[in-house]
Give the backbone structure.
Amino acid sequence: MNTTILRKSVLGIAGLAFAGGVFAGPVTEAHAAPVDAKAVAVQADKPGVDEGKLIPHGVQGKQSRIDVGDEQTANVKAIIAATKKSGMDERAAVVAIATSLQESKLENLGHLGERNDFDSQGLFQQRPSSGWGTVEQITDPEYSTMAFLKGLKQVDGWKDMPLTEAAQTVQVSAYPDHYAQWEQQAADLVAKHWNN
């Protein structure tokens, strides 16, 4: 066999091997990124949230957003856990989180002195004087969420109402339309944290 032909054949085979490695990815473990089998299994086991359940009627009006820090994320997770504990679904969590976004920006507020709205406190700005519970209770994220959801359950047809109407029926706010602006962010937070 001619050395030129042999050299071209060897170079051609080497080129195919190189191209195969580039297009097919690394062949050896030394070049492969480690795969965490547990993480892959967990992701496969976690069903996604049905986005249609989160905002079944579409959002109303201009939407607002805030940056959510660690404390607020912990409160989102507490609201979701309490929603699940109460046997309610993702839509109830959206209503609760949107309500808390409006009332406290997802912060568990204590008494604000002169800036306080009467004796309103906690994630939902519930009032001890209105029968929501003691200060200790309504500043407990689980308790305050369960109290809000108990009120929501008593609203006939709440699932078929616009979010702001359902929230207002429970909260009896002086600004009933303000809840609507938080629906998209609340839905995004539920979609992100419901299955965590």
Remarks:
- The radius of gyration is 27 Å.
- DSSP finds nine helices and no strands in the chain.
